[in-house]
Amino acid sequence: MSVEAATGADVFDCRNAFVSALEEMAAADMRVCAVVNDSVSSTKLKGFRDKFPDRFVNVGIAEQNMVGVSAGLATGGMIPFCCGASCFLTARAMEQVKVDLAYAKNNVKLCGMSSGMAYGELGPTHHSIEDLAWTRVIPNLMVVVPVDPIETRAVMLWARDYIGPVFVRLSRMPVPVLLGDDFVFAPGKAVMLRGGDDIALLANGVLVVRALEAAEKLHERGIEARVLNMSSMAPMDREAVIAAARETRGIVTVEEASVYGGLGGAVAEIVADEHPALVRRLGVPGVFAPTGSAEFLLEHFGLTASGIERAAVELLHKAAMG
Amino acid sequence: MKATKTEELLGIENRLRKASVAVRMNALRMVHHAKLGHPGGDFSSADILVALYLSVMTIDPRNPVWPDRDRFVMSKGHCSAALYATLVAAGMLDESALRTYMDPLSSLNGHPDRNKVAGVEANTGPLGHGLPIATGCALAAKMRRAAWRTFVLTGDGELQEGSNWEAAMCAAQYKLDNLVLIVDRNRIQQGDFTESTINMNPLGDKWRAFGWHVIEVDGHSHGKLLHALDSEQSVRGKPTCIIANTIKGHGVSFMENNPAWHHGVPTDLQLAQALDELAKEAL
């Protein structure tokens, strides 16, 4: 996939791919149902509600109950997709996610919408930059951050067939198509979108396209950057991380999340264990974001193509200084 | 000669009474063995658990995951000793397993794990989780147009957790008349009496106000529990809340109605005295 295609192409709201996959699965499988916390429009589930009213549960503004009800639906043989804004779904119902879903191994698919800083101006109450750190440490829970509409659909289809709890972290920020139509999601596998042995850019979600743009800018400066789509947060592709540490001069992680405990944290853990390497973690640096649009905030925290490029060059300087 | 209905019921009650005594004896032996547990609540809930597993619920002990089984969610997971002992009485767990209660690597954890013990539907322990899960089970039955019922047992202090009331509204909204909540109303929580902590009264009115059909019973009378738990007692379009008035530590003189036995552990002498008192009840 060329960077030109990524930057110049149309962009898509992955929620549309999410909801069309969900409706398609519900039409084919009577066990598929949706559970929401009043957020019918922000989850784009109005169509699902109209088409499958008997398999649409709106618990109202009650996230703990939403996750508990989903666990019960799974105990009753259904495959619930439990959908809500990621900030509330995870934080408000964390104990239910841990115990009712993960510890009990209930076949529930959590769909965290509008994650990261997609809610921009609404502020830190509505940002979900902690969700990756919180969910990643819970045993039995698969955590996936799809990169584009193709992967969103692939992850939804995989989640229906995988027996066990899954957290799919979705955004409302438009992204271009980066993967081919024949893409099949495999948990625990990173996807290399661009080869290169000078430096590695490990990104997930809406920032992968920016990492690709940064790689192109680096290429113009004679630096070849490897770009990995780290959509599978748990389990994580340890081999791909170790290879990046071994074969390049440093790793830059890029995520629309706290630099603590998410992708950057996971990568740092792996290289510390297996192959110590220089790592620079880009994300939200342990602060509550100031007021501003999602786009403004990404720029504010250096989560842009030029911000990633700058971090990569700085890391290479550091590597050269030994 | 065919037994009359009354004689038949008396026979069932007698069987349940003996089973409940066995559950209490086993539960106390388990707590004594583990030097840990919640015997007060084990004893207040024993009659309810026995009525459900040995009489009310449609289950197949040889096939605990039979898709059309009735579901039971033990929300007060800390009373795992009573639950495990009841599973033994129901023929779903080998009695020898009880001697491993809370031992290293035992399948009988302090709080139940459905992946380790057949017949357990939910992993509980943190309070306020069971009713939402049971609400989901009942919703699944409605979606699948299945006839099975869902039962959930909570403590009374447990109802201080707000998640219960989220589920209470949801179950009423979805008209879950296939859902039965039993509140083990023993009036004692870990630290004190419930009414000295956070007053639960008027408890029945609270559930009625939330749109539930409410039945109050003596939670130690198997006859009354069986009657209340009968599907004929449910009201079309409403979930049922059975407030089972119980006594914490029921059946042992020095344990009854004493907050210290929420998680008290009997000495050897106390165990012997308790087993002696319980044995007399089984006669």
General description of the model:
The complex is a heterodimer of chains A (322) and B (283). By secondary structure, chain A is an alpha/beta fold. Chain A has 2 domains: 3-176, 3-Layer(aba) Sandwich (Rossmann fold); 191-320, Rossmann fold, CATH 3.40.50.920. Chain A has helices at residues 3-8, 14-28, 46-51, 63-75, 86-91, 94-103, 131-136, 149-161, 208-220, 238-247, 263-274, 294-300, 305-320, and strands at 11-12, 32-36, 56-58, 79-85, 109-113, 142-144, 166-169, 175-176, 191-194, 199-203, 225-229, 232-234, 251-258, 279-284. Chain A starts with a helix and ends with a helix. In chain B, 41% of the residues lie in helices and 10% in strands. Chain B has 9 helices and 5 strands. Chain B has a 5-stranded parallel beta sheet, with helices on both faces. In chain B, helix 2 crosses helix 8 (222-229). Chain B starts with a helix and ends with a helix. The mean pLDDT of chain B is 96. The A-B interface holds A 30, 33, 54-55, 57, 59-60, 62, 64-65, 67-78, 80, 95-96, 99-100, 103-105 and B 67, 71, 73, 113-115, 121-126, 128-129, 131-141, 143-144, 146, 150, 162-163, 166-167, 169-170, 173-174.
* Structural classification of chain B: alpha/beta
Rg measurement of chain B, Å: 18 Å
As laid out across the biggest beta sheet of chain A, the strand order is 3-2-4-5-7-6-12
The total strand number of chain A stands at 14
For this structure, the CATH topology of the largest domain in chain A is Rossmann fold
Helix content of chain A: 40-55%
Which ranges of chain A are low-confidence, i.e. pLDDT below 50, for 5 or more consecutive residues? 1-6
Q: What is the name of the CATH architecture of chain B?
A: 3-Layer(aba) Sandwich
- What global shape of chain B is seen? globular
CATH class of chain B: Alpha Beta
Q: What oligomeric state best describes the polypeptide chains here?
A: heterodimer
Structural domain tally of chain B = 1
Largest interface, counted by CB within 8 Å of the partner chain's CB:
A-B, 30 and 37 residues
Average the pLDDT over all residues of chain B and give the rounded result: 96
Structural class of chain A comes to alpha/beta
> How does the major sheet of chain A shape up?
7 strands, mixed
Strand content of chain B: 5-15%
